[in-house]
Write a structure and sequence with these properties.
four-stranded mixed beta sheet, alpha+beta, homodimer, two-stranded antiparallel ribbon, globular
């Protein structure tokens, strides 16, 4: 086997972290299959997610480890985790606690559609964009 | 509105490319909802995907634009495209032509599961890992 196919057929977890020490993580709803969010994990976030079965991420903007739902209560219970062929991406199927995964108040972060088969300026369209929870009630309750 | 909420509620397509000029792209099967692959798009790949309705990506390893299926015939017809709240990720729902999205011969790149709620060394488990097509028949046919 080539070096690549050894990685692709291996049963050893060997995440291919990028220059910042991160892999991409895709979270989908374990029930509906809906794509909820895309985020990143460093080695510590990955380890904690595997050990606890609850989603931990690494925030690139805050340069900090965070547990999903630690401030909102919207924890993600991981039902299944998978890695992709070259192990630079992780897929978690989650039971999303609370109303939604997106910090804007929506169930999913992907609430705007891009019209296809056109040239020039693109106007987005809201889709499934109703807010599932009131931001103030969740984040300003202290 | 804050600068962030202006971006989040805007209907202007304004992708937030990273230092390498890329956004993350998640491709799911438009029929089953299954996660097929995670890849990247630069501005040109994004433009071509929007204009043609077929998936174009940018290969980080080959540093080159590529059309999905250009060598395998396994083109992805895009049924819907969405962007996430901060526009650094794109989700495409595709009709996968041919047998699969993964270059290893599988339908999806995510054919190995990571056991959860355990500590120490992790052994992956094949899941949905049967090969959907014969690599030699697809890539060595010239």
């Amino acid at each position: 086997m080539s070096a690549n196919s050894e990685i692709e057929e291996s049963l050893v977890l060997a995440p291919k972290f990028d220059a910042d020490g991160l892999v991409t993580c895709i979270a989908t709803d374990a029930g509906s299959g809906e794509l909820l969010m895309v985020a990143h994990m460093n080695a510590e976030a990955l380890r904690r997610t595997i050990e606890t079965g609850e989603a931990w991420y690494f925030s690139r903007s805050r340069k900090a480890l965070w547990k999903k739902g630690e401030s909102s209560g919207h924890i993600q219970r991981v039902v299944e985790m998978r890695v992709d062929c070259d192990q630079d991406a992780v897929w978690i199927k989650v039971e999303q606690q609370g109303a939604g995964a997106c910090h804007t108040g929506r169930r999913s972060c992907f609430y705007r559609a891009v019209p296809l088969r056109q040239t020039g300026a693109v106007a987005l369209e809201f889709r499934d964009a109703e807010k599932a929870f009131d931001l103030r009630a969740v984040y300003d309750r202290k």
